[in-house]
Design goal:
This protein has 200 residues and is mainly β. 10% of the residues lie in helices and 52% in strands. The protein has one domain.
């Protein structure tokens, strides 16, 4: 069966802004010894094999080597605690890559999947800026960059990123993230946001 999903995407990673792993399509190394990242997807509309998943959220947590193309990713999945068990199972298949789509492209790079947790997901908006809180695991502010004309500053032709090929650039502050044994914190870290639309 086919599935579709669309909504908004928010990201923070442990790299200094702007994450070189992203702008180089994984050809340049992270700014630290590894890259630790939270990818939050708010699903506004979608159905997975007959299961309506609108109004749910998922967060993919990963720790990667500095050169991402080497593989060896450690990954875990957080599903919004408001989602039903049926919705969580459907989302787990999409974000685990079993049903194809953009996340299936990352699956070969993941060698350690550490499980799925259910936590409340909250995204607050203040104009173009956002504050993301996921239980006690993820907490960061995201200040979106814009031109003098108020247009978003964007990366384009980002072909290896599941939310690409266009990503709006943000700066993450007050970062306090700790999930699945993957921890990072700080200010002035890399961030992105953009609408996403997937189908398979």
């Amino acid at each position: 069966m086919t599935w579709t999903m669309q909504g908004m995407y928010y990201e923070n990673c442990s790299c200094d802004a702007v994450c070189p792993c992203t702008w180089s399509n994984m050809t340049q190394p992270a700014t630290n010894d590894d890259c630790r990242v939270a990818l939050l997807f708010e699903v506004e509309q979608g159905a997975v094999e007959g299961v309506d998943v609108a109004g749910t959220s998922c967060v993919v947590i990963m720790q990667t080597p500095p050169h991402m193309l080497e593989g060896g990713f450690k990954a875990g999945l957080i599903v919004d605690s408001e989602a039903s068990d049926e919705q969580a199972a459907a989302l787990g298949q999409v974000f685990g890559g079993q049903l194809g789509g953009p996340m299936a492209g990352l699956a070969p790079l993941i060698t350690e999947f550490v499980g799925m947790e259910r936590l409340p997901v909250n995204v607050e908006h203040d104009g173009k800026n956002h504050h993301i809180v996921v239980g006690d695991a993820v907490n960061f502010g995201l200040r979106m960059e814009s031109t003098e004309e108020g247009e978003p500053v964007e990366l384009t032709n980002i072909v290896v990123h599941p939310a690409g090929p266009t990503l709006a650039i943000g700066i993450a502050d007050q970062v306090r993230n700790s999930a699945f044994g993957i921890d990072w914190s700080g200010d002035g870290l890399s961030g992105f946001s953009n609408p996403f639309a997937w189908a398979a």
